[in-house]
Every structure is written in C-alpha cells, then in structure tokens.
Design goal:
EC number (chain A): 7.1.1.-
CATH class of the largest domain in chain A: Alpha Beta
Largest interface: A-B, 39 and 43 residues
Shape of chain B: globular
Largest sheet of chain A: 4 strands, parallel
Number of strands of chain B: 37
Radius of gyration of chain A: 22 Å
Structural class of chain B: alpha/beta
Protein name (chain A): NADH-quinone oxidoreductase subunit F
Number of domains of chain A: 3
CATH class of one domain in chain B: Alpha Beta
CATH topology of the largest domain in chain A: Rossmann fold
Number of helices of chain B: 28
CATH architecture of one domain in chain B: 3-Layer(aba) Sandwich
GO molecular function, one term (chain A): NAD binding
Number of strands of chain A: 8
Helix content of chain B: 25-40%
Largest sheet of chain B: 7 strands, mixed
CATH superfamily of the largest domain in chain A: NADH-ubiquinone oxidoreductase 51kDa subunit
Strand order of the largest sheet of chain A: 3-2-1-4
Strand content of chain A: 5-15%
Keywords (chain A): 4Fe-4S, Flavoprotein, FMN, Iron, Iron-sulfur, Metal-binding, NAD, Oxidoreductase, Quinone, Translocase
Number of helices of chain A: 17
CATH topology of one domain in chain B: Rossmann fold
Helix content of chain A: 40-55%
Cofactor (chain A): [4Fe-4S] cluster; FMN
Order of helices and strands of chain A: HHHHEHHEHEHEHHEEHEHEHHHHH
Oligomer: heterodimer
Radius of gyration of chain B: 28 Å
Chain lengths: 431, 923
C-alpha cells in the first residue's frame, strides 16, 4: 500500500516524539540512502518533476528555486548554506510545530537530502524561540545523526559532508521572511533585504543560500525515495503532494491534519474540524494565516490549493485557516491583526513602519466609537498605499493589508455599524 | 547610452546608474530621503517612487507598477511616469506617513530653512493633516559638545547609521528598537567616538543631528554670509563653506570638491574653525610700552613704526605654514630670500622639504582623494591618518571596499546597491597594511597592523621595496621579516597600489623608504600612487616657496644677528623647543609679530599687528597633494584687523621696495609669486582673478533671502551701513549677483529653487556625484616626476632600545594636536592636556599607573601617563601639538622618572578599571 500521509506517518496519538530507533524502524533515513545513491543533479530533477511548492506560504516551486543555486564550477569556492525556516509565527499557524515536535528526524533527513541536492555543507534550523521543546529535540536528533554517520565529515561513507546547527530566533515575526532571517542569523537587525541579488547567489554571509519552510523540507526525502509521480498522485488538483491543513476559531474540533493537496475547504472545516460550534455560524475565514484575505461562505467548495485560492482573491498561505464567526466583530478581529503586524514591522520602510500603526489606530478609533466618516477613506487610501507588493520593502505590509481590505469588501456593514454606534457585537459599538 | 521615456519624453541616460540619480542629473524633481550620492541606495524611505510600465500599452492604460527610482537601474527602452497621479499620490502618502510623528517645530528647529524634509514636503504637495493620533516621542541623548540630538524629528531614513557605521566605520551609533519606535542613538549617552561624526549634521535630512555650536549661536542658513574657503586644520585641503553673521563665524559646511573632500569633512575641519570668534583675538595693533604692556595704536601708526624699524635694518622674516602663499611671499620679498625662514622647526624643515622632493622625484602619481578611494592595495608607513590627515582616513575606508565592488561586478550587481554589495562582501576588504608606532584608528579595517619603532618601520619599508625589486633582503628582525612577504605579494598583485607615509612620525627614512616602495612598483610597471602627508594647510606651499636651503628656525637662531625679526602667523613657542625660541627672539632688537590670536610669541613682540583669520582674508594654500586652492574672506575683518598680506604689502610700499611697486591687488601678488617661484607657477590657476564676472555680475555671498541688514544694527542706527566692497575677488558682500554656473572655486553656498538644503548641490554638479559644472576647484602643482637613477639604498639601521631610555614617538589626536582648532568652542572641551603613552610593563617598572605623572629627562617636561600597550617596545608616545610637549623632539631618547607631587586630574582608578587603556595590543 502506498504511503498517503508521508509527513505525519510517525506522529503518535500521544504526540510523543519519534526517536531514532522508531524513526528508522519505520523506514527512516532510507530517503537519504536513496538520495546519496544518485547525483545531486538527478535529485534536483526529481524534485522539479514532483511539482513541490514551498509550504511557507508563497507556494514558489521548490525545484525552480533551487535551480538558481550555482553548482559545481559555477560556484565560487566557499560555503553553501541550507536554512530551514522554523520561525513559525504566522497568526493562527501551528503546522510546523507538529512536525518539529513529533518527528524531528523527518526534518533532519529532509534537510540532509536537500543539502546534498544543493551540495550545501552547512545547514541551519532557524527556529522560533518559543519552540524550546522542538529545539531540544532537534539538538538531540542531530547528535544521534552524528553517531549514525548521517551528519558530519563523511556521510554514510560517500564523502559528502554536512554540519547542521539549530539557531533559536530572538522572536520577531519578520524573521520568518527569508532575507530578514538571514540578516538575523548573521547577527544583524532582522531587516529584509532587497532582491536581487537573491539568496541563491548571495545569501547568508554573502554565500549561496536556500531557505525553505519546515514542511517543504520534510517532503524532500520522501519525494526522492518514492519518486515524483508518487508525489503528484497524492494531490487532488494540479498542486502535488499532501498538505498540513489547520483550522482555528469557533469550530468543534480545531486542529491540524495532513490531507491531500486540494482538499475542499468545506471538507476540512466540516469533516475534520467538526463544523461550527453550536450557536455560531461561519461569517468568513482567512485561508492561510493572518496575512491572507478573507474568504466567505461562497468559497467553501473551493479546493485548498495555491492556484484555486489565489484565483478567489486570497492566498492559501500556510493552509491554516482562522474562522470568523457571526458573533465576533470583524472590526476588532482585523484591528487585532493589523496591530500585530504594525508591532512586528521591522521599521525599515516608511509605508509599513508608519502606515500600519496609523491603520491600526484608525481601526481602534472605529472599534471604540471614536471613528469618523472619513476614516473609511483613510483606510481605503492606506490599503492602496501599503497593500501592494513593490510599494514596500518586503511583503509584510501588503500581507497585513489583506485581511483589512477583504474585510472592508465583504463586511462593510461592520464598519458602518461601528461608525453609527450600532455594532451588535460590541455593546453598541462603544465598548 | 540607454534611452528611457519619462512621462512621454525620451531621455538619453548613462548606463549603470539608477533612475533617481539619473533624474536628478537631468534636473527633474524626484524627492528622496534615504539615498545619498556617496552612499548609494537601500530603498528604505520609498520616497522616490515612480510608476514603471512594461509596454506602451501598459502606459496608455496606466497599468504599471510602483518602483523605487533609487533601486531601479536605467535600462534601454524603459518607460516611467514621474508626474502621473499614481506616482505623485504615492509620494505624497510617503511624506504624509513621515509627518505623522514629526513635530511641528520648524520655527524653533535648527534645520529650518535648510531642511530636506521641508523641501520634500513642499515638493510632493502634502499639506493637510488627516492623522488624529498622538505623536511618538523619544528621549534625546547627550552626544558631546559638537552635535545636538533631537530624536523626535527623526523620519527613520537610516542615513545616519548608514553613514556613521557603514561609511565612516563608527561603532557607537545604531538603529535601536523596531517598528515605529526605531531609535537612532548610542547605547548610552556620551560623546560620539567617530572623528567624522559631524557629517551627520549634513547627512541627516532633517533636524535630528544638528551642529551644537551653531544651535548655541544660531542663525538661519538664509541669513548666513558665506564664501568658498579651504580648511586650515591639516594639509588635506578640504573645501569648506564657513557661514557668518554679526561678525561671528557661525558654522562650517562641506563645500563639494569631487577630487578632494567630496561630501564629507572631518570634525576638526567642521568644528575647529570657531577660533575665529575666540576672545583672544587681537583687536588692534599694539605697541609695547616701558611697563611691558601694550598700547593700542591705529594701523597708520603701526605701519609707520614697522617701516621705521625695518628701514635700513637687518631684517629677518619668519613665515608660517599656516599662512597663505601670498603673505609668505610678501614677507620673503620684504626681508630678502636669504633672511626668510619658512618658519619650520628643524626637523619639520627637513621632513617637509623631503616630502616635496620625494614626490617631485617619484615616478608614482600623487593622488587626489578620489583616486585614493580607487586604491586596491594600500601600505601605510608610520602614519595615524585619522589623526593627522583625517579626511584621507575616511577615503581609505572606502578604498578597502574595492574588494566588495569587484565581487559585486562579478555578480553584475550595481555598485550603488549599497546593502546588497555589503551583504555580498561581508567583512572581505581590499588589503590595507599599516606599520605605525602604535595602534591607529584604521586598525579595524587593516589586514595587518604592525607596531614598530620608526627606524624599524623604515626597515620594513626598505625590505618591501627590495622584495618588490627582487633584491635579496638582508637578515631582518623577526618582528619585521614576518610581514614583508605578505605586503610585497599583495602590492605586486595590485592594480592600483597606494603607498602612504608622511612627516608625522618624524623620521625621514620612513618617508624615503615609502617612496622607494612606490618607485619599485613603478619600475615593475604598476600604476602606483604615493601620498606623503605634511603637517599644515600650507606646509607644502611653504616648502615650494622657500626651498630646502632656506633657514629653519634653529638655523636662523644659530646664524642670527638681526636688528628686526618679523614673524608671520607663527607661534614659535608652539612649534619649537623653548630654549631655541628664546635664543631666536634674542637675536633681534625688535620683534614684530603679525597674528590673529594672542599667544606667547605675540607677547614677546615689541609691535603686534592683528592679522585677519582665514575667514577674513583671501589666500592660496597648497595641500598635501600639491593642490593650490584659494580661500576667500567670508566677512570683512573688523576694526583695525587686516589680512597679513595687506599689512605686509603696505609696509613694503612704505619702505619703497621695488618688488612691491607694481603690486596693487591680491591677484598681483599671486601672479608675481607664480612668475618668480618655479614650483608655484601654477597658483594663478587656482581661481579666477578679481576681474572675473559671472555673466557680467559678481557672485553674492548672501542668499536672496538674507534678511535684516538694516535691523541688525537698528539699536545703533536705523541707517543701513554700506556693505563692504570686495575689490579683491569676484565675490560680493551682498545678495546681488549670480550664484550659478560659476567656476568651481567660486561657490559660496548651494541653493536652488525648491532645494533649500545642502541637497541642492546636485544642481551645481555636472551630474549627481560628479564634478561641479564650473570645474573642480584648485590647481595641481605636482605631476608625476622623473625618477632619479639610484642603486639599492643602504638599509636603515635597526632600532636598538637602550636600558633606561625610551625613544620619543609623536602621537596625534584629531582634537588637540592642531593649534588653532584646539581653541575652538566645543573642540576645546574634547582636547586633553599633554600626556605620554606608555606600555603597561614599562609603567610597572617605573611604578606609575594611568593618571600618574612622569618626568621626562629630569624636567624637560612633566606629563600625565596613559597606558597604551600598542606602543612599540622601547618607545613612548607623546601627545604631539598638545600643551607641554613643544620641547619634545621625535626620535629623541629620554629617561623617565615618576613625578613627585603630581596631582591627579581624575580620581585614582582601581586595578580593574585599567581596561580604559588606549589601543588593543597586548604585550
């Protein structure tokens, strides 16, 4: 029987971590052996064929991203780096945590195979500081890999060498942006960098670098071991593989599940999350974290994949939905998010640094009965000013504007109710 | 050349530039904040946004995307909109955002009237405030006596830290905190450490960093009278714009010179000119009476006294390397060539003349600063440039980045992509080797820092020269031998090697071997640069004027049997050992001193003539690169003060000297000097003469908006006095005239419609960052020379320490080592009294610690001890130019004794506080 939930196959019901013995017993490190038996070029080709797309939120094809890394003679002498982005801080997102805490070896195997494919000699796991349990597990797992010869000077006698380090982040949302992550890892302010040059040619310490999300890297050795066709067969739509989907909010059974890519939203919410809590109705949902546009009931039958959700005007993002119910005020909901992003701005570029706090303040005024008619114009102007990629230095501020602009589109009455002092959720709009 | 289209108009643009700088070069108004022509682009402020269209159809339908001008390379066929509603609306939103937290304190802000933020706000048209919230506020920090900090005004453009840390190598100013709480300051209050911190005043686009000496004696830019000037703080010859009001020098700003200082000055230059306002300035001529005090006399009387004294007498003249070529030339004519001393002490005399001779005889090029920035391998022998020729040190911090630019070029990354280039290269630098008597302020960017006694620095230089020429070196001391290979290998591989040495370590052999290294590189076919620093603003000009055979101060004292000694702007007690000065002054019956400030030498005079400062007179100075540059009076000298050249010309005429018969104007002196002194033949080219008119009119020293000319004297009289007439230059002491398109040497201030701040400079440049439209100021007097044939030179003898003796090596400080700047407000606070630097092991042996006193040679001097383990073994450093050190001679061997009865200036430190030592070397 072919494997249909590769990412969570070692996740135990009690959520205890899988150790080296258990991991190996369940076929662990076979992907590594399969990879080492091939050339890095072949591995990359398999990956390209698999149509694996980045699971951090942007959905960029991983094989294509990696193909920009200079290989062989084209690469100047020196280190090449692979970085795992485990700085999971997207509001409502907890999928990487599951992988990190339940199956640390899976990530490490995925990273070794990825590093081999890229011929990187140093790998970092840049992990959210609050994930201290995962940090400890990863450190133990890395030590175990050294004992087994999966990491170190001469991996499984092939001559390939790789060192792996775990770096605990200082705790800023922006560290999840790959270039800000690199700045942070270098000990600098966690400011994103302008591209080009892309990290593939000038990343960590100015050297070729690949940064990928935990979930992305966890897929890599499975693909190398089982082939691109197997991976593509897992998805229900064009997008390949499985995906960790999550649901939070007032549903009966909030959680995180590995499902075929492209599982319909309704199925995820109603079947896996158990539907809305009694007495609550779905008003809208953010499909993939705090920085994605609201979708509403009309979108429930869409497939959760990058392209489908993208065409509906939002982003699949991390695939972890936040549900807005009909008893919660959308204005407060959005204000909370915008205030979060305003606080997490690195402060580098003007629209984000000064624009987001203003938006948050206007929303706060509206929420608390101090709003004025022209505030809606201000918000609309801010959305236009901050909300487009390219207007700002990185994607944080445009992401922050997504829930706001979509809330203004789908729930205009919520704002009007507040401005007229009649919000049914907020004590008449003046709480 | 790429052709691009902006709002339907096609422009040809230079390839490799970004859109912002290209637009500014074309005279298009595109606002910006974070970009700086010398620092490149990072895309932080988002102010220079334009709309880019990919196709013609996109342009017609208005379907383009916002891009940042500063981050967008100009590529052929690109289509942009600057003036479309979307681009304009975006830019207005940026200013609106910046103004959310910016205080409405323009009326009381020192930046007001020359504020880039004001200009840009007006340019984008933002006017009405929509934001109802509170403004963020910050606490300000004390950053020292020179720079004021007002963080509330910050618009978070990051220019300050990019300049201070990235460009100037400072470590104590940073961006702190994040989101809209970003704070630019130090980790705690304290004096900014960088010697180039003052540029923050001009780099900051608004009023966060302002000139504290200006703030405390404030005048708006539009009320300042300014003139093109040249810094007198050292020999680099940075171009400056001092501003004046009410007869007081208010501030000094940078005057752009593409080949010299570019956009930046050092803090000695910016803050060290305030001595012009010093209370010790002489007001009127003084005649010593019987009681020994001075009777003020008017200038007629004073001239008569001087002429009578000189008439028929044996007169000797002592010139000065801080006085202009013209004043020195007149004095030389007045006393005769044989009786004219350039005013150097003996060692200085030898060294400065050698520096000139070596450069004239070298096949290597004497580079300007812009060329220095292009060097890819640098060897410094014996200089702490940050403290002796500071602006060169700032240039070298750019030179070492050439490695980064090479790496960027390999990736086809534009050099203006500042953050990207820095991220790519990280800490990889072009090689810089420094051999000095102790650690220097460039140590952090040097590949090797080598600490040696001066003799051994010379031996290192000789060994490198020999290695490059392929001669087998003799056996060298291990401390030297270990470095020769790395240095000579790097130099041989260099495309643009640069060798730097100079007079400051007081050793002729060091300079000589530096020239040998340069020569060896030239012989091996490499394009080599050689820079030799000299001490003062006109040291080189003085050597050119007087030559090596003229008498030094010591020689004059030894030869001397004169009736009259005329001393020009030279405090001998500051320059030479006291006994020698006493001997010199005793050779003459009458001592006449022309100087600006009261000092020990003026106090020894029988007649004192008050000389105008550099800010009140015209003059030509020859910088260390042999560039003759003209400075102009910023304001007319007050009362009985006269420029030295005026005193000397009047006296010459009074005496009926034939040499002075045809001299009427300042220009006549310049011309006469050029005609008679071969080395100075080029000085007439330094600036146009006084007949020059800019489109038929003079060039105003006052901006259009100069106000209150009547009001400023209204308490005395409501009648506006006639403005002084400047008969000596094309500049006028008025608002009338044309400040545009004039020769580069005649730019008194920068201003353009809509551009009130110093950012208006680009309107005076041929292109952004390029030379001034009117040409680069100054005339180079040194060309590549013809090397004299010479065989391998004998290796200088090694340094051999004597038990109980230490060799004196001069150590310099940007604040304190130069005489006049140390008398400036603010700078004076940062100057220390004289001290000596000694290694901890030596101090231990002498039973002294930091802050104790040491006697040198049983009473030659008594100075405070500073522990500095980086000083070469067997040497002690002394604070050159500081009080109490004039009697000390570089290279002298002296004994040391603990000073009894020494009173500590600071409380005794406990042992663990000893880490306050200077330098980082270990024993």
């Amino acid at each position: 029987m072919s494997l249909t939930t590769p990412l969570t196959r070692n996740v135990r019901d009690d959520r205890r971590p899988t150790d080296m013995a258990a991991y190996e017993a369940n076929g662990g490190y076979q992907g590594l052996r399969a990879a080492l038996a091939q050339s890095p070029e072949d591995c990359l080709q398999v990956l390209k064929d698999s149509n694996l797309r980045g699971r951090g939120g942007a959905g960029f094809p991983t094989g294509m991203k990696w193909s920009f890394v200079p290989m062989g003679d084209k690469c100047s002498p020196g280190h090449k780096y692979l970085i795992c982005n485990a700085d999971e801080m997207e509001p409502g997102t907890f999928k990487d945590r599951l992988l990190l805490e339940c199956d640390p070896h899976q990530l490490i195997e995925g990273m070794i195979v990825s590093a081999y494919t890229l011929q990187a000699d140093v790998a970092y796991i840049f992990i959210r500081a609050e994930y201290h349990q995962a940090t400890r597990l990863l450190q133990e797992a890395i030590a175990a890999c050294h004992e087994k010869g999966y990491l170190g000077q001469d991996i499984l006698g092939t001559g390939y060498q790789l060192e792996m380090h775990v770096h605990s982040s200082a705790g800023r949302y922006i560290c999840g942006e790959e270039t800000a992550l690199i700045s942070s890892l270098e000990g600098k302010r966690a400011n994103p960098r302008a591209k080009p040059p892309f990290p593939q040619v000038s990343g960590l310490w100015g050297r070729p670098t690949i940064v990928n999300n935990v979930e992305t890297l966890c897929n890599v050795h499975h693909i190398i071991e089982r082939g691109a066709e197997w991976f593509k067969s897992l998805g229900l739509t064009e997008d390949a593989g499985t995906k960790l989907y999550g649901v939070s909010g007032r549903v009966k059974n909030p959680g995180c599940w590995e499902l075929p890519m492209g599982t319909p939203v309704r199925q995820i919410i109603e079947e896996y999350a158990g539907g809305m809590e009694d007495g609550y109705n779905l008003k809208g949902f953010l499909p993939g974290g705090g920085s994605t546009d609201f979708l509403t009931e009309e979108h429930l039958d869409l497939a959760m994949d990058y392209d489908t959700i993208g065409k509906a005007g939002s982003r699949m993002g991390t695939g972890t939905m936040i549900i807005l119910d009909d008893k919660t005020c959308p204005v407060g909901f959005v204000k909370n998010l915008v205030a979060f992003f305003a606080r997490e701005s690195c402060g580098f570029c003007t629209p984000c640094r000064d624009g987001l706090p203003w938006s948050a303040q206007v929303l706060d005024d509206i929420q608390n009965g101090r709003g004025q008619e022209e505030d809606m114009d201000t918000l609309a102007r801010q959305v236009k000013f901050i909300g487009a990629i390219g207007n700002t230095h990185c994607a944080l501020a445009p992401g922050a504007m997504e829930p706001l602009q979509s809330a203004m589109k789908y729930f205009p009455e919520a704002f009007e109710n507040h401005l007229s002092g009649n919000c049914p959720h907020c004590n008449g709009g003046t709480h | 050349m790429p052709t691009i289209r902006i709002d339907g108009v096609e422009y040809e643009m230079e390839a490799g530039k970004n859109l912002l700088e290209s637009c500014l070069s074309l005279g298009l108004d595109l606002p910006y904040f974070c970009w700086h022509p010398a620092m490149g682009s990072v895309g932080a402020c988002r102010q220079c946004a334009v709309v880019q269209y990919l196709t013609d159809e996109d342009e017609q339908s208005g379907r383009g995307r916002i891009v940042m001008g500063c981050m967008t390379p100009v590529t052929d066929g690109a289509i942009f909109s600057l003036d479309g509603d979307r681009a304009k609306g975006f830019r207005e939103s940026v200013v609106e955002s910046l103004m959310l937290n910016h205080p409405h304190d323009c009326p009381v802000c020192a930046e007001g009237g020359e504020c880039h933020l004001q200009d840009m706000t007006v340019m984008v048209g933002h006017r009405d405030r929509v934001y109802r919230g509170q403004k963020n506020t910050h606490r300000n920090q004390y950053l020292g006596p020179l720079i004021n900090h007002e963080m509330n005004r910050c618009i978070t453009c990051y220019r300050c830290t990019r300049y201070y840390k990235d460009y100037a190598g400072g470590t104590d100013l940073a961006a702190l905190a994040s989101h809209d709480h970003v704070y630019f300051g130090r980790h705690q209050e304290g004096v900014l450490e960088s010697e180039f911190a003052g540029n923050l005043v001009e780099v900051c686009p608004t009023g966060v960093f302002t000139d504290k000496t200006l703030v405390n004696d404030y005048t708006r830019k539009w009320d300042l009278q300014s003139a093109p000037s040249v810094c007198t703080g050292c020999a680099v010859g940075c171009n400056t714009v001092p501003g004046e009001r009410y007869g007081r020098l208010k501030r000094v700003h940078n005057r752009f010179n593409a080949e010299v200082n570019g956009y930046f000055l050092c803090d000695r230059g910016r803050f060290g000119a305030n001595f012009v306002n010093n209370d010790e300035r002489l007001e009127s001529p003084g005649l010593r009476n019987q009681t020994g005090s001075y009777d003020p006399v008017d200038h007629h009387h004073a001239l008569q006294v001087m002429a009578e004294a000189c008439s028929g007498a044996r007169v000797a003249g002592i010139g000065s390397p801080r006085a202009s070529v013209e004043a020195n030339y007149l004095l030389r004519n007045l006393v005769g060539e044989d009786n004219f001393s350039p005013g150097f002490n003996d060692r200085e005399h030898k060294l400065v003349n050698l520096a000139l001779e070596l450069q004239q005889a070298s096949s290597a090029v004497t580079p300007d600063i812009r060329s220095i920035e292009s060097a890819d391998v640098i060897l410094i022998l014996g200089e702490d440039l940050t403290n002796t020729a500071p602006r060169l040190a700032l240039a070298l911090r750019q030179s070492v980045r050439n490695k980064a630019f090479e790496m960027a070029a390999d990736l086809r990354l534009e050099s203006w992509q500042d953050a990207a280039v820095r991220n790519l290269a990280q800490d990889q630098l072009s090689p810089l080797f420094i051999a000095a008597t102790g650690s220097t302020r460039l140590a952090d960017v040097a590949e090797e820092n080598i600490t040696l006694a001066p003799q051994n620095i010379a031996r290192l230089g000789a060994a490198v020269a020999a290695s490059i020429s392929g001669h087998a070196g003799e056996d060298l001391e291990p401390e030297i031998a270990g470095h020769v290979e790395a240095i000579s290998t790097a130099l041989r591989a260099a495309k643009r090697p640069l060798i730097i040495s100079g007079t400051s370590c007081g050793n002729a052999e060091v300079m000589q071997t530096a020239a040998d290294v340069a020569e060896a590189l030239c012989q091996s076919g490499q394009q080599t640069m050689l820079t030799l620093t000299v001490p003062e603003a006109n040291s080189l000009g003085q050597a050119m004027l007087a030559g090596p055979d003229s008498p030094s101060l010591g020689k004059l004292a030894a030869d001397g049997n004169f009736d009259v000694l005329v001393i020009l702007e030279n405090d001998l007690y500051h320059r030479a050992p006291e006994p020698e000065v006493e001997r010199l002054l005793a050779t003459a019956d009458t001592v006449i001193v022309l100087d600006g400030l009261d000092n020990r030498t003026t106090s020894a005079a029988s007649l004192v003539l008050p000389a105008a400062s550099f800010a009140e007179t015209e003059g030509t100075l020859v910088s260390l690169e042999g560039r003759a540059q003209r400075h102009y009076p910023v304001f007319a000298p007050k009362g009985e003060r006269r420029p030295a050249w005026v005193w000397l010309l009047a006296c010459s005429k009074e005496l009926g000297l034939s040499t002075a018969a045809d001299l009427h104007h300042f220009d006549d002196i310049t011309r006469d000097c050029a005609a008679n002194i071969a080395d100075l033949a080029g000085i007439t080219g330094a600036a146009p003469d006084h007949h020059f008119r800019n489109a038929g009119v003079k060039i105003p020293r006052q901006p259009h908006r100069y106000s209150g000319r009547t009001a400023m004297r209204a308490d005395i009289s409501v009648h506006e006095p006639k403005q002084p007439v400047d008969e000596e230059s094309p500049l006028a002491f008025t608002m009338e005239g044309l400040n545009r398109s004039q020769p580069g040497s005649l730019l008194p201030f920068v201003w353009a419609p809509g551009w009130n701040s110093n950012q208006s400079l680009h309107r005076f440049q041929s292109e952004v960052g390029g030379p001034l439209r009117g040409g680069t100021a100054g005339m180079r007097l040194l060309g590549p020379g013809q090397a004299k044939e010479s065989g391998p030179r004998e290796n200088p003898p090694a340094f051999s320490p004597t038990q109980g003796q230490w060799q004196l090596v001069p150590r310099y400080r940007i604040f304190g080592s130069e005489e006049l700047s140390a008398l400036s407000l603010g700078v004076a606070e940062l100057c220390e009294d004289g001290y000596i630097e000694i290694r901890a092991d030596d101090a231990l042996g002498l039973e002294v610690g930091e802050g104790d006193g040491l006697n040198l040679n049983d009473g030659l001097a008594t100075l405070e001890v500073k522990i500095n383990n980086s000083i070469a073994a067997g040497c002690i450093g002394y604070a050159a130019g500081h009080s109490g050190t004039a009697n000390l001679t570089p290279g002298e061997n002296i004994s040391l004794q603990k000073a009894q009865g020494w009173k500590r200036r600071r409380p005794q430190l406990i042992g663990s506080d000893r880490s306050t030592e200077i330098g980082s070397g270990n024993d």
